[in-house]
Amino acid sequence: MLQCVLLVALCTVRLAGDDAVKVGYVDCSSGDKHVRTPVFSDPCISQPLETLSCGKQVIVLGREGPWLRILATDGSEQYIGVTSVSQKKGHFVALDLPAPPGPYTQDCTAFRPKTSKVRARPIHHPDPEYTKEARTAGIRGVIEFVIMIGTDGRVHEIKALNRLGYGLDEKAAETVQSWKFEPALQDGTPIESHAVVDISFYVE
Known about the structure:
Distance between the termini: 5 Å
Number of strands: 16
Oligomer: single chain
Shape: globular
Radius of gyration: 19 Å
Mean pLDDT: 82
Structural class: mainly beta
Strand content: 35-45%
Strand order of the largest sheet: 7-6-5-2-8
Largest sheet: 5 strands, antiparallel
CATH architecture of the largest domain: 2-Layer Sandwich
CATH class of the largest domain: Alpha Beta
Low-confidence stretches: 1-19
Number of domains: 2
């Protein structure tokens, strides 16, 4: 039997203007594979939430001065130093996220804990079609997308992080683009948010 399994991990994040979602890797150029890089819940909090291993893939949402905002595996938003994330695994190549002009000022007096947030929830999420070419070739696997959900509950941006081919990428993207959500809320007001969507294809 042919089945498509959909797993959706949703999170609420701030958008940084025209910054595009990017994929990077925790820098390994020091040569010490055992060094772990700290990440923080906010630049104003000195105690790290956790540490990430060298080569770990991260989804970068934007830049704030010397910090990158990344999407954590639990759906939260975290901060990591700009020089800690590379485009390449083997050697350091800075992400194409230039610092804004002028000095960077970190005003921690305005910092407030994130409260009263409600994540976006899918209310219409049909399964994508398993293509004839993929079925014939016996292709199976997972396609991961990062999507932006608007205040209207529709998918406004979609980015594939990997591909399976055989027409599955296009079918999956077309279907996810048609999904509808109850938008994320901040203090009862709809806000834009990002979500990580995993679509698994397999044949029984």
